[in-house]
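Technical note accompanying the year-one report. For the benefit of new consortium partners, we illustrate the data format agreed upon in the data management plan: each record pairs a sequence with a structure-token string. No post-processing was applied to the example shown here.
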Amino acid sequence: MTQSALPTSNSVTNTAASHVTPDNTVALCSAEATSENARIRSQFPALNQMLDGYPLCYLDTAATSQKPQIVLDAMAQYYTNDNANVHRAAHQLSARSTLNYEKVRDQLQQFLKAKRREEIIFTHGTTESINLVAFGLSTQLSAGDMILIDSAAHHANIVPWQELAKRTGAVIKPIPLMQDCRLDINAYKTLLELKPKIVALCHVSNALGTVNPVAQLVQLAKAQGAITLVDGAQAVAHLTLDMTKIDCDFYVFSGHKMYGPTGVGVLYGRFECLDSLTPLMTGGEMIKRVSFEATEFGSLPNRLEAGTPPIAEVIGLGAAITFLQTELTPQVQAYETELLTYLQTQLRALGEVHLYGSLDNNIGVVAFNLANEHHQDVGILLDQQGIAVRCGHHCAMPLMQSLNLKGCCRASIGIYTNKQDIDRFISALTSVKDLLL
């Protein structure tokens, strides 16, 4: 089914039936799970606040996650004791900063199961990472070359490719969606027969939470000789990542989606793929030799990290990785899945709520609208009760157009979300419904 034929709501039956009890709720009663969640939640100071007399109920983790104390402490430690530039001074502060900065590259190599530490490039976020790749591939494309893009992609995984197409004469083609907003694998296979040069995918939809089978999609693309990039911004805080299994050429994500700071991101790439990119940024740090006649660029990873990097943010990202490696256990992941199922179930039980996308293969996110009410009105009324959700097109306007929507509300959960958050949200949304309908 093509995008234009997608419905405006979804009535897919929840397949996590083993969690649903006869009274239409979900069993989240494990004392051990509740205790573990409370311990994890206690590490996030921002959650312990009141908004206009209501305790904060933060359901906007997909936009940006809250930060655990370990991340705040790591950044404060750098600014308090180690503040110096990296790679370029002889004094002890710079040596300590450089050591701590480069340790994070080693952490990420392990975290992603990359083959080489030089395959980890620090950027300022997912958006810069994709722009870096799109610009870097400019000399490798010609007029008429095809770029396939996931129809549910974030704007950051659309616009840089459009700009690349303008520069090179390449052609953009979206990969169609099925009725439940998952990628149409058969249509994808047909498009791959046209030998695209680049295939840009999202691991998890930021608007709907749909999980794509990226290892399968990448394998199919590589069989046709395509360069593959996967946007993992919404996956990194929920899933265990393994680049040897996904096998893509490039994988990108942001620190602030994974309990780390804003202003830092990661570009993973196969060494030979990274090494072939034309640098987006040039200047200090990325050079080997400079004269007024010519400049010789340095080697990876420095060649793609011009200028002073976001040092404190990288160090904070390292703390976030430590946090995830310690706390994101299979049991915690299972609890997140139960919470999401509970959220879906409670929303559907409320009535007059439209849910969007596949409900049986998603993580972290539920997209919805209340009857025919404007999403922004619903969000404002929820905010007045301390409930933080996202409202709008979620930087996925093509997806919204395919759903015949101007926008929707999005409730998203994180490692700190608990059943009480969901119950408070449902109670608040009930009062909004009573007021508006």
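Partners are asked to follow this layout when depositing records. The mean pLDDT is 92.
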